Amino acid sequence: MKLKTLLIALALTSTAAMAQTFTVGPMTLVKTSEPAFYPLLTDGARTVLVTQQNYTGVTSVDLASGQQRVLSTEPKAGRHIADSPVTTNDKLQIVLTSHGQQTILTPNGPDNRYLWPQLSPDGKRVAYTLSGQGTWVYDLDTKQTTRVGNLRAARWFDNQWLVAMHDSDDGYAVTASTIVMTNIDGTVQQTLTDDSVMAMYPSALNGRVAFNTPQGQVYVMTVSINR
């Protein structure tokens, strides 16, 4: 298991060294009154929404002024931060809502469990994590599935790129995690964070990427494409 994790990490590092597709700005710590998790960039990436580790409550933080505003104190309110047309049902199948109609999607078969689905900005693809099998992309037009890599909790950076967490564990808890940028077929990947933080559960919008640490610290950084 350790050898497999090391080989994956080396592959990611090697790919990043060759490509250097992105320029990453410094990580900025977002000040919150209490530990915060599962950040969601909103309002043109001027604001980040956060919740508690058990998804209780939702707080808005203005990234320019640092002003915090409590939006909800309800239990599990954090599970519904994003008003997304793609969710999962109780069977962990993907549910796509369009024009008031719901469609169940099981691109890899009905016996799999689907996690963290998200619709691309142009509405043409769904990224999701398949339990135990990494992150995949499903093309809604062609019905084709593509495995992106051994990544989790992927979020769209734009229509061609995703940010996701590459984590490893000891069988009980996560021991390491970085944020990785990948294209939609997994052929180009670049690690965005270093070993100074354990970076998890990314969000991306307008060239900014947010993530949290296991201790509940939230960071935001700018990422630009080297064209």
Helix residue percentage = under 10%
Give the CATH level 1 class. Mainly Beta
Helices and strands: which structural class? mainly beta
Q: In what range is the share of β-strand residues?
A: over 45%
- Shape designation: globular
- Poorly predicted ranges (pLDDT <50, ≥5 residues)? 1-19
**CATH topology grouping:** Neuraminidase
Query: What would you give as the CATH superfamily?
Result: TolB, C-terminal domain
What radius of gyration results from the CA coordinates? 17 Å
Q: Count of DSSP E strands?
A: 20
Compressed to H and E, one letter per element, the order equals HEEEEEEEEEEEEEEEEEEEE
Question: What would you note in describing this structure?
Answer:
This protein is mainly β and 227 residues long. It has one domain (2-34, 82-222): Neuraminidase (6 Propeller), CATH 2.120.10.30. It is built from 1 helix and 20 strands. The strands form 5 sheets. Strands 1, 2, 18, 19 and 20 form a 5-stranded antiparallel beta sheet that branches. Strands 3-4-5-6 form a 4-stranded antiparallel beta sheet, with no helix packed on it. A 4-stranded antiparallel beta sheet has the order 10-11-12-13, with no helix packed on it. The longest helix has 18 residues, at 2-19. Mean pLDDT is 91; it is low at 1-19.
Sum up the structure in keywords:
globular, five-stranded antiparallel β-sheet, single chain, Neuraminidase, 227 residues, mainly beta
